[in-house]
C-alpha cells in the first residue's frame, strides 16, 4: 500500500445513512441479526449503571446475588464488564446509542427510535440528579484516582463511550437534546483536565483515553465553542504523535486499540480545524500500522491486543489473534484514508476486514461476538453471550453491523463510486441519481460463462458476478476492480466504458444504465510474510478455513492451490456454496469460508511440503 499523499480536498464523500441501505445478502442478514439483538435489550438494563451512579435505581437484582440460573439472571441485569463493580461499567450504553441511532437513521425503525428517545430522556434525568453536568456511569472519583496516578483501568475510555453515543444520536438523528447533554457534560471533564500542568497531563494521556480527542473535534464542529479547540490542544498525545511524525516505529508491541481511536480523533481534528499537524499524525500512523507492517491473510494485525512487528506474523498466531475492536476501528481509519486521498488500496483493506473480520467475528446464528479471531492450528472461536460479558468488542460489534451500507458507495466530484460489492440501494440527491447493486449468484442468471447450460451454470461460477443499475442525471460511474481478480473483468453494458487503473469508468448518460460485471477469481495461496511455506487459501476476498482440530501439513505446490484443493458440495437449491476439499493428502479436510465457521475447530494457515 502507498502512504497517504497530500491532498488539498477530499477525494470522496461518504453518503449520509438515510441515503444508502442494504437490500439483500449476507451483510443484510447480519444487520438484521444485530438489529434483533439491539431491540432485545431493555432500557432499564442498558441504563443500570448510569442510574446507579445518579442514585436513581429501583432495581432489585442485587438482592439475589447467589442465583445460579444464568438465563433468568440475564433478564434482571447486565453482567460481565457491565457489572456495577466493573471499572468500565456503563461503556456499552454508548455503543448501543450509536448503533441504534444509525439503525433508525438508515431504516426508520420505530421500535429503536422509541427506545432511543426514552434512553436519552433518562440520561438527561441522570445529569440533572448529578447537578447538571455529570452524566456518566463512571464515578468522578475514578478521574481523581487517575490524576493521582492510582489504578483505575481506563475511566476516560468509558466516559468517551457515553459522549460518543450522545454525539451520534445528534449527528444521525438531529437530536438537539442529546447534543445539549454532551455539551453540558464536557464542562466537568474540561475543568478536571485543566487542573494539571502540561507534563502531568501528558502522563495521564498514556492511560487509555478512547476517542476523547474525536469527541472534542465533533463538539467543536457541532457547537463552535472554542473550549473544544483548547481541549484538542490539551489532548495532543506527544508520546505517541511526535515520534510517529518523526517516522519512528512506536507501534510494535504497543496495545493497538489504545492508539487507533486517538488517531481517528486526529483525523477528525484535521477535518474540523484544517491544522496540518493532525493530518501528519494520520498519515504517519497509516504508514506505520499498514504500509510498513503488513497483515495476516484476514486483514488483522494484532495478537494479544498488541501490534505485531513489521511483516513478522508467524510467531504471533495464537488463541488471541485479531481483536475485533482493532478491526472495526482500522476499517474506520481506512475509510478516512480513502475519503481523503482516493487510495483504492484502502478499499481493498476494508474489503478483506469486512469479510474476514467483522463477518468472521459475529456468530451467524446468535449474532454474538468473538473478542478474538484465533489463527493457531485447530482453533475455536469463543463467543460472547447476550447479557453476561459486554466486552469492549461487544460494543464495536453492534456498531459495526449498522454501518456496512456506507462502505459500499461514495460520491466524488463529478462521479458516483462503487467501492464494495455489497447489495445496496443508494441515493445521490445532489447529483439526482440512484445506484442499485445486486449480486448475481444463483441459477436464474445465465451469463456468458463457458460452462453455462440451458438450466444455468453447470458448476459454480469462477467469478463474482455483479449488476449495477444507475438511474437519473448523467454522470460518470467508477467501479472498483478488486485486487484479487485472476483475469481481466468482463463488462456487459451499452454505455461506453474504459479501464482506468483499478477502476472501471462508465459513462452514464442519463435515464437508466445497467452494468453487468464478472470479476474472475481462483483459489489462491497467501503465505505468512516471514514463513512463505505456510499458506492460507483465499477465494476472492474470502479466507477459507480447514475443519481440523490441530495444525496439519499439506503436500503440494505452495504457489498453486489447485494442487491441494478441489470444489466440494457446491450446490444447494438455487444457491452456489463456497466449499472445498483437500486432494492428494493423507487426511481429508473440508474447507468453508472463515465467516461461516461457528463452533467447529479450524485452521487457516497450513505448512506446505512439496510432493
From TrEMBL:
Signal peptide boundaries: none
InterPro entries given in the database record: 6-hairpin_glycosidase_sf, Beta-AFase-like_GH127_cat
Keyword Transmembrane helix applies: no
GO molecular function: hydrolase activity
Any Pfam family the entry gives: Beta-AFase-like_GH127_cat
Segments passing through the bilayer: none
Statement: the UniProt record of this protein carries the keyword Hydrolase: yes
Keyword line: Hydrolase
Domain Non-reducing end beta-L-arabinofuranosidase-like GH127 catalytic: 19-404
Protein name per the record: Glycoside hydrolase family 127 protein
Amino acid at each position: 500500500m502507498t502512504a497517504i499523499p497530500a491532498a488539498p480536498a477530499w477525494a470522496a464523500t461518504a453518503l449520509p445513512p438515510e441515503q444508502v441501505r442494504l437490500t439483500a445478502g449476507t451483510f443484510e442478514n447480519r444487520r438484521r441479526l444485530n438489529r434483533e439483538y439491539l431491540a432485545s435489550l431493555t432500557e432499564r438494563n442498558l441504563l443500570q449503571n448510569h442510574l446507579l451512579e445518579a442514585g436513581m435505581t429501583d432495581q432489585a437484582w442485587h438482592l439475589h446475588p447467589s442465583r445460579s440460573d444464568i438465563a433468568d439472571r440475564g433478564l434482571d441485569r447486565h453482567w460481565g464488564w457491565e457489572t456495577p463493580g466493573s471499572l468500565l461499567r456503563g461503556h456499552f450504553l454508548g455503543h448501543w446509542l450509536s448503533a441504534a441511532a444509525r439503525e433508525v437513521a438508515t431504516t426508520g425503525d420505530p421500535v429503536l427510535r422509541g427506545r432511543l428517545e426514552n434512553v436519552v430522556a433518562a440520561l438527561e434525568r441522570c445529569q440533572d440528579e448529578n447537578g447538571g453536568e455529570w452524566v456518566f456511569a463512571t464515578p468522578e472519583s475514578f478521574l481523581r484516582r487517575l490524576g493521582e496516578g492510582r489504578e483505575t483501568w481506563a475511566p476516560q475510555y468509558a466516559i468517551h463511550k457515553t459522549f460518543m453515543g450522545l454525539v451520534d444520536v445528534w449527528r444521525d438523528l438531529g437530536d438537539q437534546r442529546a447534543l445539549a447533554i454532551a455539551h453540558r457534560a464536557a464542562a466537568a471533564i474540561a475543568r478536571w483536565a485543566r487542573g494539571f500542568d502540561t507534563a502531568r497531563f501528558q502522563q495521564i494521556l498514556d492511560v487509555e483515553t478512547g476517542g476523547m480527542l474525536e469527541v472534542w473535534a465533533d463538539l467543536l464542529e457541532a457547537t463552535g465553542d472554542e473550549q473544544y479547540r483548547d481541549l484538542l490542544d490539551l489532548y495532543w498525545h506527544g508520546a505517541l504523535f511526535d515520534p510517529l511524525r518523526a517516522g519512528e516505529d512506536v507501534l510494535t508491541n504497543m496495545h493497538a486499540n489504545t492508539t487507533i481511536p486517538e488517531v481517528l480523533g486526529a483525523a477528525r481534528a484535521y477535518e474540523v480545524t484544517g491544522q496540518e499537524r493532525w493530518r501528519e499524525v494520520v498519515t504517519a500512523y497509516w504508514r506505520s500500522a499498514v504500509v510498513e507492517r503488513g497483515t495476516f491473510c484476514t486483514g488483522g494485525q494484532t495478537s494479544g491486543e498488541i501490534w505485531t512487528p513489521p511483516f513478522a506474523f508467524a510467531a504471533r498466531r495464537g488463541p488471541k489473534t485479531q481483536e475485533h475492536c482493532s478491526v472495526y476501528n482500522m476499517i474506520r481509519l481506512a475509510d478516512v484514508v480513502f475519503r481523503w486521498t482516493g487510495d483504492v488500496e484502502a478499499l481493498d483493506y476494508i474489503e478483506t476486514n469486512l469479510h474476514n473480520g467483522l463477518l468472521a467475528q459475529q456468530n451467524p446464528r446468535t449474532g454474538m461476538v468473538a473478542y478474538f479471531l484465533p489463527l493457531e492450528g485447530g482453533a475455536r472461536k469463543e463467543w460472547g453471550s447476550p447479557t453476561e460479558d459486554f466486552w469492549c468488542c461487544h460494543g464495536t460489534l453492534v456498531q459495526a453491523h449498522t454501518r456496512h451500507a456506507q462502505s459500499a458507495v461514495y460520491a466524488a466530484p463529478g462521479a458516483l463510486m462503487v467501492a464494495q460489492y455489497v447489495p445496496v440501494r443508494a441515493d445521490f440527491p445532489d447529483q439526482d441519481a440512484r445506484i442499485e447493486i445486486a449480486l448475481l449468484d444463483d441459477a436464474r442468471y445465465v451469463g456468458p460463462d463457458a460452462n453455462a447450460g440451458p438450466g444455468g451454470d453447470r458448476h459454480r461460477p469462477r467469478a463474482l458476478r455483479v449488476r449495477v443499475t444507475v438511474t437519473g442525471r448523467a454522470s460518470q460511474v467508477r467501479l472498483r476492480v478488486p485486487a484479487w481478480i485472476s483475469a481481466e473483468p468482463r463488462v456487459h453494458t451499452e454505455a461506453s466504458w474504459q479501464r482506468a487503473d483499478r477502476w472501471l469508468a462508465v459513462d452514464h448518460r442519463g435515464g437508466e444504465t445497467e452494468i453487468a460485471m464478472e470479476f474472475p477469481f481462483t483459489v489462491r495461496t497467501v503465505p505468512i510474510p516471514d514463513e512463505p511455506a505456510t499458506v492460507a487459501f483465499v477465494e476472492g476476498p474470502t479466507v477459507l478455513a480447514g475443519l481440523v482440530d490441530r495444525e496439519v501439513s499439506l503436500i503440494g505446490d505452495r504457489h498453486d492451490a489447485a494442487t491441494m484443493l478441489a470444489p466440494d458440495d457446491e450446490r444447494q437449491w438455487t444457491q452456489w456454496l463456497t466449499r472445498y476439499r483437500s486432494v492428494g493428502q493423507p487426511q481429508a479436510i473440508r474447507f468453508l469460508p472463515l465467516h461461516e465457521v461457528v463452533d467447529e475447530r479450524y485452521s487457516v494457515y497450513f505448512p506446505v511440503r512439496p510432493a
